[in-house]
Amino acid sequence: MTPPEPIEEVALDGPGDLDAWLRSAERPAVLRGVAAQWPAVKAAQASDREGMAYVGRFEAPRAPPVVATVGPPEIGGRFFYNEDLSGFNFRQEQVPLHIVLNTLLKYVEDEAPPAIYVGSTTIDTWLPGFRAENDLPLAPREALASIWIGNRTRIAAHQDVPDNLACVVAGRRRVTLFPPEQLPNLYIGPLDFTPAGQAISLVDFSAPDLARFPRFAEAMRHARVAELGPGDAVFIPSMWWHHMEALASFNVLVNYWWRQTPAWMDTPMNALMLAVMTVRDLPPAQRATWQQVFEHYVFDAGDATAAHIPESARRVLGPLDDARARELRARLLQRLNR
């Protein structure tokens, strides 16, 4: 396979330029050193022990346990399905964060440790005070800040609806990205039974089976890759496929998620699941008709779509807001539960 091209790198004069750049950012980019001055980054660069101690001192006294994902050494850090996709090759435990950090320290010199991973943990809930010392100026975006902690783990290629700015705090990460249109070439698994909520590629990136997944070679022609060190960040636009590999025995990542849409908008994944249930298996002629209906009311919708209806009577064909969305959601739930 052709080696992937590097992700474009963007140089900012300082964190203060981040907001201006993000306003026009539409493609992935690596931002070297954007979080290099964080005390958490400096502690982790001093040693794994200091990095763990720094993170651990912010643990809220009465914080609920975190969800730790744990797999045996044999999985090589790849959290995935079992052989027939009827289950998974890992287990999940609810444990205090300091227990996770102590366990990571215990195995930090082990060549074949169990895979340990705490994913998508809200910083303000579990580590109050952390962002007062380690944060990026992302206002006016209402970004959700999460922390990811673990050892050498691999997270299969998947998509997220929000835009994503991911900052390496400790260790190193290899990030492989694909544009959204590579969906057919990534061999995505089940939509409704997933390791962590998002559908994932079934291809093992460390040893791709091109006999089983031949189109993956085409996906790699469009891939972009970067290796990130402490203080580096990568911007991943909405719906770009991303495969994340942690390369060190102790890794910490802080990421910020935000959507460019009102909070009342549901995820489009709900619409996809409903379409699978209600449209996909229609007779071909009917399915083609509904494709035209969706194009008219959704994908090609514009000012002319409902221009023939008085504004006061357009209802869902007019501009939506929080109140109208709640009304529509209640109507949908009533129909689904009939």
TrEMBL record:
It comes from the Bacteria. Residues 116-273 form the JmjC domain. This is Cupin-like domain-containing protein.
